[in-house]
Amino acid sequence: MSEVRVVRFNSTTLTLVPESEKRKNESLFSDPDFGLFYGLCFIISIMTFIMDLSMHCWLAYVYHTRNDLFYFLLTATFIIIPSIVSTGFSMRWYILDEDDEQSPAKPSLMKWSIRICTLLLQVTQIHRYFDALMYGLRSSVAGYRKQRVKQDYLYRKMLDEDCDAALLRLFYCVLNSAPQSVLQLTILLLYKMHEADISDNYEKVTSVDKSSYHVFEYQCVSVSISIFSVAWSLTTYDRTVRFIREDKNRLSCVGTVLNFLSHFTWTVSRVFALAVFTTLYPRLALLGLGLHSTLMSAWLLYKQEVNHNRCDECVLDCMLGIAYIFIFISSHSGPQRYSYYSYYLICFAENICCLFVWYQNRSRSNNQLYYALIVIQISSFFLSLFFLLLYYKCFHPNRKYIVTQQFEMTETKGDKSSC
Question: 8: helix, coil or strand?
């Protein structure tokens, strides 16, 4: 037993893996490395969630005070429903963890009380991020005290909590932040188009219209935070999956930044394209998004392998079909290169169609707004491709492993030739 070093969790059991087996593959669960950047990721996730939710609630209050009942109901709907869905998922996962008889530790009554309070307050994601941060800090303290087994256990608990929090945040952003960004940008464009039709000069706008400029500022901030939240949630999900899965190499800090920039610029491109089309034809846009989501869900169901969890997999694929309206999430193991190619080509064609319809129906009184939105959408799309290609070419985790393998093969051939 002196060779045992790394503590790992399987789906239901706790196993001890010899160090000699760990050395066979560099992508296996390696030494805990919770550091400043990992803690910063938790803090950014908590802050963006609070800012995102606060801005949406504030906009709903502003619409209510301005007697914009329709916009108030839409904004409130995209706040309440995603919150209930994410809270239900979190509660179910807590219950499943509690029913696991082979779990090494059960939460105390105090911990369950805190969980119930956060579930009732609809802030369960903050609680999960805070728990993951505490596990990470305790793991670092245990490592400083040379308590290796305790450090590995706490680090694994941190990864498990981080994985649940990242998946919850991703679902929440798909159901809340992404639709909110499209909705608020659509309302903003409608106000701007109406203002341009009334007058070309700011001095001729009525006093009631002048008060709308404060609403414009809130909407711009809300759209920016929502787009940031969507990109960040997908980045942290990709990062967490690579940390918790033993068959994947970890994502570096530079790789995380490039991954985020790719997701951010892509989300900007997608949100702007959908918003400009929704501004002109809201019902047709809703029909098109429903068709897009249905086709994506059918494609995922077609790729799905038959197993005993068929119902759960169908629900997950339907959720991913909704997510594919805005972003691409890798749902199956193995290479995803052609899936990325297909998704980007389809969405690029949809974006071009939206921009073409937007350009054909533009108002001559404000051409600058139309041209600016077209430039933002197209430039964001190609920037996304640039960051994505740079990430896969230079900073993808598998690239380091491939280069190491090639170097070892070169050394082996050199040794054989010298013999």
Answer: strand
DSSP conformational letter for 173:
I
CA distances from 406 to 401, 409, 412, 417 (A): 9, 5, 10, 17
Return the exposure string of 228-267: e unless at least 16 CB atoms fall within 10 Å of the residue's CB, then b. Answer: bbbbbbbbbbbbbebbbeeebbebbeebbebbbbbbbbbb
Question: Is the separation of the CB atoms in 380 and 270 below 8 Å?
Answer: no
- What value does the mean pLDDT take over residues 105-133? 84
pLDDT one-digit tens code per residue, 226-264: 999 999 999 998 888 888 877 677 778 888 899 899 999
Given the DSSP bridges, would you call strands 4-9 and 14-18 parallel, antiparallel or unpaired? Answer: antiparallel
Contact 45, 231 (CB under 8 A): no
Name the residue among 248, 355, 313, 310 with its Cα closest to residue 28: 248
Among 144-148, 159-163, 212-216, 287-291, the minimum mean pLDDT is found in: 212-216
3-state secondary structure of 18: strand
pLDDT in tens, 353-412: 888 888 777 666 566 777 788 888 889 988 988 998 888 888 777 665 444 444 344 444
- Output the pLDDT for position 405: 42
Q: What values do phi and psi take at 355, rounded to 5?
A: -65, -35
Determine the Cα angle at 125 with ends 230 and 315, to 5°: 70
The amino acid occupying position 107 is: P
β-pair partners for 16: 7
Q: At 241, which helix (H) or strand (E)? A: helix 212-244
The HSE-up count of residue 122 (CA atoms within 13 Å, CB side) is 12
DSSP structural state of residue 199: -
Q: What's the rounded mean pLDDT across residues 165-183?
A: 90
Please state, rounded to an integer, the average pLDDT across all residues of the chain. Answer: 77
| Cβ 244 vs Cβ 356: under 8 Å | no
Burial class (CB in 10 A: 0-12, 13-18, 19+), 338: exposed
What region, left, alpha or beta, does residue 67 occupy, with left being phi > 0 and alpha being psi -120 to 50 degrees? left
pTM summary value: 0.80
Q: Picking from 147-151, 327-331, 380-384, which range would have the lowest pLDDT averaged per residue?
A: 327-331
Contact 59, 184 (CB under 8 A): yes
| Nearest by Cα to 312 from 92, 159, 123, 122 | 92
Single-letter amino acid code for the residue at 7: V
CA–CA dist 20, 222 (Å, integer): 52
